[in-house]
Write the structure tokens for this entry.
Amino acid sequence: MPTLFEKICQGEIPARFVYQDELCVCFHDVSPKAPTHLLLIPRKPIPRIAAANSDDAALLGHMMLVAGEIARQEGLADGGFRIVINNGKDAGETVPHLHIHILAGRPLLWPPG
């Protein structure tokens, strides 16, 4: 059964996209935790970062570079932004499809959680 994010990638569920390429998509989170809360997801369904393997190295590197590109495109780079990847229920993962949260627009405290 396809995940929510697979359905978004396939256009079955609408989203407010800010970026798309052949490997990944980025869109606004429907339940934002910061003034800017974007989700960057691979089109390839990888359940979580701990399930990725060496075959996914190029994809994961691409996504990190795209995260920086999106931050610059959205005007987040100068003020600062946070990248978060949750892995597993205890970390707050709610959709079993690897995704990178890009958060910005307010002071982000440390430590998180």
